[in-house]
Specification:
Length: 162
């Protein structure tokens, strides 16, 4: 397994992973599927803040980060997203991706990474806790998907002291 910076050519595979999660789970609150062109633009815009895990030229998952909130006071804080293809789960790929993403964030001067996690995704809460993230917020019923009200859990990790 190899972790590398995402390339435009990865956009189709990334969109497939994301759209499967959108269609089949409550992991994300959105029902709007991602277009390949939009994913390609994100890859181009985020550069080293967009990583993929691949094996045998197949993208198994990705991790990326973007703005947490607007304004200069949040310049050193980013919200991340990590998603894996179903066949890639439970193999340590997510841990490797998030670790590499944290390294990239440190190199870019990012102080805090935030995870916004659906209350329907207990596995993501345990995953993040195992990697040193702590829950710092719980927003009841802010999400709605398929007629279900869902909570948003906020977890964060401080990447460097100071």
């Amino acid at each position: 397994m190899n972790i590398r910076q995402a390339q435009i050519g990865d956009a189709t595979a990334i969109a497939e992973i994301t759209n499967t999660i959108i269609r089949e789970t409550l992991v994300t609150f959105t029902t709007d599927e991602r277009e390949v062109d939009a994913v390609a633009k994100d890859i181009q815009a985020r550069g080293p803040a967009f990583l993929v895990a691949e094996e045998n030229a197949q993208v198994l998952g990705f991790a990326t980060y973007g703005a947490f909130r607007n304004g200069p006071g949040y310049a050193e804080c980013r919200e991340h997203s990590i998603q894996l293809a179903p066949e890639a789960r439970g193999q340590g790929i997510g841990r490797a991706l998030l670790s590499a993403l944290e390294d990239a964030a440190r190199q870019q001067g990012i102080h805090v990474l935030v995870a916004g996690i659906s209350s329907a995704n207990a596995g993501a809460v345990a995953f993040h806790a195992a990697l040193g993230y702590r829950q710092v917020g719980h927003m009841p019923e802010v999400g709605l998907k398929w007629g279900k009200r869902l909570d948003l859990l906020l977890m964060q990790k401080i990447l460097a002291s100071g």
